Each structure stands twice: as structure tokens, then as C-alpha cells.
Amino acid sequence: MARSSVGQEVGADQPSRFRRLLRGPLPFLLPWLVGFLGLTVVPLLLSLYWSFTNYDILQPPQWVGASNYVQLAHDPLFRTSVWNTVFMVIIGAPAGIILGLGCALLLRRPIRGSALYRGAIFMPAVVPSVAVAVIFIWIFNPDYGLLNAGLGLVHVRPQGWLADPSLAKPSLLILLVWEAVGQIMVLMLAGLAEIPGELYEAASLDGARGWQRLRFITLPLLSPVLFYSFIVWIIFYLQFFTEAFVATASNLGAPVNSTLFYSIYLYESAFSFLKMGYASAMAWILFVVTMIITVVLFRLQRRFVFYRGEQHA
Amino acid sequence: MTFLDLLVPPGRRRRLLTQGGRHIVLICLSALFLLPLIWMVASSLKSNSAIFVYPPQLFPSHPQFGNYRKAFDYVPFWLYFRNSLIVSAATICGIMFSCVPAAYAFAILRWRGRDIVFYVVLAGIMLPFEVLMVPLYVMYRDLHLIGTLLPLIVPPFFGVYISSAFSASVAIFLLRQFFRALPRELIDAARIDGAGEWATLFRVVLPVAKGGLITVALFAFLSSWTDFLAPLIFLSKGSLFTLSLGLQQYQSLHFTAFNYLMAASFVFALPVLLVFIFAQRFFVEGIALTGLRG
Q1: Which of A52, A83, A109, B5 is most buried, most CB within 10 Å of its CB?
Q2: Which pTM was predicted?
């Protein structure tokens, strides 16, 4: 009889380790494993090595020690890009999550046409980011755009939006949050559906009103989902590229570097200035920071997030 | 007691009021989220003179459906469309080829070190494409693959695909969740019948986990169709551009034909919008599954 599971292989004649692997998981993992080694581990190591070199792809890399990292610490553009990115993370992630949660709470109890409402709010999430960016370039157009025209109706002076250094980041945030809210809402709705109705019945017997029910039942029971969303969206804003690139394609980072985000500066260093070593150093800093943030958040999660008994097996 | 109280009892009235309030808020919200899309479609139908008018009209008085034909001629639109189709189809097939068996190995097979290797997969979810793009570019250049579509076509077959919202690691994770949710007896029964692991995968697991496969395929389609950064770096020639790169060709430093750009954007977004409308439930299921992990 054909026996294939590894656990059952302990027989009289021990087959070699290799053959055991061959009958076990190895064939299933082979494509992934090849790609993981060849197209992930090797590039990662190359990039780590290059981050300690000067490398313009035309000449072979030259070892310069930690000089790229030292230079980064003194590079005002790098600092600007970090600040711009932090700004997006700090405002974008909470804004999207609060709005998404709000929409989910509105749509939670049955209401006629809820599928339509849900579809409408989610729809921006499936529009390609490049298309979103060009739509909003047009909406933000200072002369002929929809937004200034709309504001004109309530007598607000026309603004420069993406062309105004103080409004460029908020404008991008409007666009990114518009894209994100629907996805967050769907996630929150799924989380809300998991909360057992009896809890609310018990609470209303105890006299809990709407706000108290939100504060003491909904939010604690939703905290795993909320926490997960924070991790996902913090990482998203740390790395986001497309919308900023398309919105400022003719002059990256414009106006006056107010939209020079981390990934934009990384891209420019590598592919405009051909400073591959410098860009690799930036890439590794991004990778390590992403890992640290994720690990720290997961640690925090154990303290602040409430899990119902059966949820974590 | 007033006449109104007789007509609609107060308790019911309050409920009607709050229901009505919710409807109003939801209609406003929906309008807010749909307005940019409506603006896109409306702008795509405006004539060259009507588009640059202040204050702008929301709806064009003389819709120009000919704009679409002109937009397709303005840049080699159908060439870009074809490239996008090739890349998306390859990504879907590649992800299925590499990630379905891997997910099976993590979900159904029992082997030593499984959980540790799975953590490596999960760590891959955190890996930004920005970290890999420089070395991958250099590697593909040395292999003379820059200037072909291959840097976008081949890696998914080896479980290497990263875009902003979806990656091969996410695909493995999702599929594993779907496979694990299958009743264990089903798989044990197949084994008792003497089916090998591959037969179990193809004849037992896949037919039952069809919903999961569709969800992952949809995500792969959505993200590869809309992906920008990888095409930007790996596709150096205009004849290889995908639609996300091609849209930029409507913009130039001095003039942007916004009506054509909006028409092209709409046609670019249309396949994903249609897929979404007809397969909403798979999207929702997928988001719920990736999301509900603590």
C-alpha cells in the first residue's frame, strides 16, 4: 500500500532522509523553496552586501564600510523623507481605521439596501491606484478641479492642493483614506459579526446604553481586528509609493520635497542617481524598521488585546 | 395624545426616525465615495473645450462617446491592455502553481519543522518590495531579462510576488486557512482509500476548497492588474508597458488631456470593477480571513 505521510515512515528499513523528504513535503514546497532561496534570500544578502559599498551598476561595487549609513544620518533629504512618511503613518492609519469602523457600525444592523451602501463605500478599494491618483490629480486641479468648484459654492477660496507644499500631504491623505476606508469597513464588519448577540442582551439588561455598549463590549471584542488593521496600515503607509509617484511624476517629491516619501527617495537614489549602495542601505533600514514595528506591536497586542477563550487554539 | 401618535406609535416612530437618519448618513457617505468615480466617467465624456471650463459642470451637456476611440488612439492602449492581460494571467497561474501545493504542505501534511518554515512564509508578508527591487533589478539585468515581460511573469511560478496589498506569502497563508478549515475526515477517508498526497490534493481538497481558490485568484488578478512599482522598474521599453504605466503617457509636462486620461482610466478600472461586482462575496470572504488573524 502506498504510504506517503512522513509520520508513517518508521519501518524496518529506514529509508534515507532524502527519500523521506522526497515522499513528504519537499515536492509540494519545491517551487516556493527555489524562489525563496533564489529570488528572496540571495537578493536580500546581495542588497545587504551592497549597502556597505559604492555601487552604480556600471562598475563593480566598492567596499566602503558603514559610510552609506553614516551619510544617511547626515542627509537632509533622507530626514525629510522620514518625516513625511511618519506624518502619513501617524495620521493616515488612525483616520482610515476610525472612518472604516464608523461605516461598519452604521451598516452593522440590518438596513434596507445595505449591500448597495457597502458596495459603494468599498468600490474605491478595487480601483487601480494609478487610476485613483490620476482621478484625484484632476479633482485637485487648482483651475478646473471639482474640489475647488465645490468649495467655491460655500465661499472657500480655491486652494493649490497637490501644488501647495502645506496641503500636498493632506491632499494625498484624502486620496489614500478614500481608497482604504472600504477595505477596513469590510474587515470590521466581519469582526463585528463574530461578536455574540447575547453579550449585548446581557448588557442591555444591566442598563448599558449605546455608548457604553460600544466602549465595553464592541471595542474590546473587536480589539484583535483593530490591532491587526493598525499593523497592516502602518506597514502600508511606511511603504506606499504608487499614489505619491503618480501624483508628482513630472517632479518627484514636489512641491519643495513635501511629498518626498521614504520609498520615493529610495527609488530616486537607486534608479535616478544610480546610487545602488545608498538605496540598499535605505532598503535595509526600512526592512528592519518594519520588522521592529511589527514585533513590538505584536508584543503590545498581548497586553491590550482581548481574546475570547476559544479564539486562540 | 396627538394625531401623529395615533398614526405611528411613538416607539415605532423613534425607530423610523433613526432608520431614516441612518439612510441619510449612508446615502451621503455613498455619494462621497462614488463621486470621484462619477467625476471620472463624466469627465471622460466631455469635449476638449468643455473639460477646461470653470466652474466645471458635473455632467457634460453633449456627451462625447467618441472620446473613447480617441483615447485608445492617443497612446497604444490595446498594446498596454494586452501586456496587462499577459502579466495578470501569468501571475494568477504562477501563484496557483507555486502556492497551492505549498499551502497543502503547511495545512495537511505533517512534517518536522513545519511551523518554523511557516513562520518564514509569514515573515515574507512583512518584506517590502522596496528591499528586493534593487537586487532583483540587477539580477534580471545580468540575465538580460530587462526589456522583456519575463521579470513579471516568471517569479510568481516560484512563489515570489509582492505588491502593496497582496503577495505570494499572503496567498499561501490564505490557502492554508481554507485548507485547514476542511473537515479532517474527508482527508483521512481519502488516505484510507489509498490515495496519495497529490491525488488527495487534486481530487479531494481542491474541489471542496474551490471558494478559497477563487478568492486567491481574484486577489492575484486585482493586485497584478493594478500593480505599478514592479512594472515601473522592470519594464524599460514602452512596447512592454502595462496599463498602469501606460496611463502616464497621457500626461506630459505641459498638457494633460484629462478627458482621454479619464476615459482610459475608466476602461483600465472596468475589469476589476466588473469582477468585484460579480464576485463581491469572495472579496469579502478573503478580507475577513486575512483580517481575522490576531
Answers
A1: A52
A2: 0.89
Strand residue runs (E) in chain B: none
Give the total number of structural domains in chain B: 2
Contacts of B134 (CB under 8 A, 6+ apart): A47, A50, A270, A276, A279, A280, A283
Is residue A275 within 8 A of residue A51, CB to CB? The reply is: no
Contact assignment for A239 to B34 by CB distance below 8 Å: no
Which domain range does residue B242 map to?
A: 71-291
- My answer on whether B103 and B133 are in the same domain is yes
B157 plus B60 within the same structural domain: no
Q: What Å distances lie between residue A173 and A77, A153, A167, B32, CA to CA?
A: 21, 23, 10, 15
Chain A CB contacts of B219 under 8 Å are none
Cβ of B287 within 8 Å of Cβ of A286? The answer is no
What is the distance in angstroms between the CA of the first residue and the CA of the last residue of chain A?
A: 35
Last residue of a domain, one of B34, B50, B68: B68
pLDDT tens, residue by residue, A142-200:
888 999 999 999 989 989 999 999 999 999 999 999 999 998 998 899 889 888 888 88
Interface touch B135/A31, C-beta < 8 Å? no
Identity (one letter) of the amino acid at B245?
A: L
**B22 and B51 together in one domain:** yes
* φ and ψ at residue B203, rounded to 5 degrees: -95, -25
Q: Which residues of A187-223 are buried (b: 16+ CB within 10 A; e: fewer)?
A: bbbbbbeebeeebeeeeeeeebeeeeeeeebbeebbb
Chain B residues touching residue A4 (CB < 8 angstroms): 196-197
B154 and B64 within one domain: no
Cα distance between residue A125 and residue A177, in whole Å = 10
Same domain? B99 vs B201: yes
* Chain A contact probe: residue of B131, B259, B276 with most A CBs at under 10 A: B131
Q: List chain B residues with CB under 8 Å of A46.
A: 135, 138-139
Which of A55, A85, A130 to mutate against chain B (most B CBs within 10 Å)? A130
Q: Which residue has the cell 442591555?
A: A204
CB B102 within 8 A of CB A28: yes
Domain of B268: which CATH number?
Answer: 1.10.3720.10
Residue contact B30–A280, C-beta within 8 A: no
Q: What is the ipTM of this complex?
A: 0.88
Based on the domain organization, do B195 and B64 belong to the same domain? no
Dig out the grid coordinates for A13 from the structure.
528499513
Q: Which of B163, B226, B283, B261 is nearest to A129 (CA)?
A: B226
Residues B114 and B255 in one domain: yes
Yes or no, beta carbons of B111 and A135 under 8 Å apart: no
B99 and B171 inside one domain: yes
Entry field: residues in chain B = 294
**Distance (Å) from the alpha carbon of B2 to chain A's nearest alpha carbon:** 28
Grid coordinates representing B145?
531579462
CB A253 within 8 A of CB A259: yes
CATH 1.10.3720.10 fits A68-308, yes or no: yes
Nearest CB neighbour to A31, from listed B157, B247, B292: B157
pLDDT digits (tens, 9 = 90+) for A6-63: 444 444 455 676 676 667 889 999 999 999 999 999 999 999 999 999 999 889 999 9
The last residue of one of the domains, among B41, B68, B95, is: B68
End-to-end CA distance of chain B: 54
